[in-house]
Model the fold of this input.
Amino acid sequence: MTTAAVGAPGSARRYLHSLWLLSARDLKVRYSTSALGYLWSVLDPLVMSAIYWFVFTQVFHRTVGYEPYIVFLITALLPWVWFNSSVSDFTRAFNRDARLVRSTAIPRSIWVNRIVLSKGVEFLCSLPVLALFVVLSYFTDHPAQLNWGLLWIPVAVLLQTVLLVGLGLLVAPLCVLWNDLERTTKLILRALFYASPVIYGVEDLPGVFETLAAFNPLAGIFALYRVGFFADEWDPWVIGIGAVMSFLFLALGIFVFRRLERPVLKEL
Amino acid sequence: MTASDLAIEVQGLGVRFRRNRRGRRSIKDLFSDSSRRSKPGEFWALRDVSFDVRPGESIGVVGRNGQGKSTLLKLVAGVLLADEGTVAVNGGVAPLIEITGGFVGDLTVRENVRLTAGLHGMSKAEVARRFDGIIDFAELEDFIDTPYKHLSNGMKVRLAFSVVSQLEEPILLVDEVLAVGDKAFREKCYTRIDELLADGRTLFFVSHSERDLRRFCTRGLYLDKHRLAMDAPIDEVLDRYNADYPVGA
Done:
């Protein structure tokens, strides 16, 4: 009777089918309903890069990061935008599509993972901007020094996916049960931007903060993104702790999600 | 009979809700086993419900408002999880449990059909093949690219029934949505349900209309005081229900 179906209910194939269906819908809505379309995924990081580049190279005398600073900024800003937009969307992951969640018996983790996936695709689509600035840097006094560390970028993407899925499984159900958390999350995100090595590098932090920063998984992940352009960013301690922390968040997320799935469905 | 021969197997089912939305929650809830303690301010919407359904049976759920009929359907559909007991469903479920079919307001009729059918496992090609039939049945040819939220209530129900009844799932759940449509459309729905039943689908039907229940269902489940009070042929169940709650008394 179910010849027309894609995989059996509960199979991995059906899971991916549903996941892609929802993510593709997000992307389609984002790209087809606005005049600027693709530009939106690069506009945010571009404007932010321009601001920080202006403030730290033209206004202040910069002592942090590496040359070319604009490449240094963009290598972390693009993944930051993926992180930031995903986590802000997690706060409404269930509420936004409450009707669908209430009437469709697909595995509930899809509502979280579809955000990671669609924002991740947007992130990958924004990478050409990074390539553009790398090329442009060859016409300046400080060309980017590419090295084999570039091969770490896929690992960084994977690690960031692990971290985001973990955070999503943690944040999304909690936000359904406690409304206050939605605004708290936004506040934490804003603080986290300056607490993470985006406009500076981990090694620029003074004293004990350098050790503490390693426990922010974003520090290790951003270091992996940067290592292909700035070989000095390689720091096994920061990257190792970052990887461990990412998987710890995933484990915590899975635990909390299992516990909260039941009350969340009652609440919607 | 082995378990796999059954379409639905429900064992000692219970689900608990909070009485007021502002009930206090604590981080401790995270770590406590949800099935054990009964907390103050909570009540059992359903408890100790057990029954088996064989494939092809058509079952009517009877009971007053607030006795757990819709909750039972949601548990069978898997969009709500039980606090105790188990629900085992063999094969997929086509649920018509929300009056609006659970469609997304901002998407157009076309996008909603693709999304809902897709989430029930229909491939893109299959959706495309059936699309005209679905729209035709719902009589929405002129509204294919209209955002769902701009449809009238009647149109919404027509679309919801049309999509759900096209899903190739062996079990169909219908929760009193048919009361909304006009008479002509209702007749069309009845014909479609008859076809599905003749096709060997299992039907789970919640309704306050005695006529509908007697027409489609062979077996009745009577929910009273949040428990399964009776599980018998539909005529006996309805007689008991009418005796318990006489009209006009």
Summary: The mean pLDDT of chain B is 83.
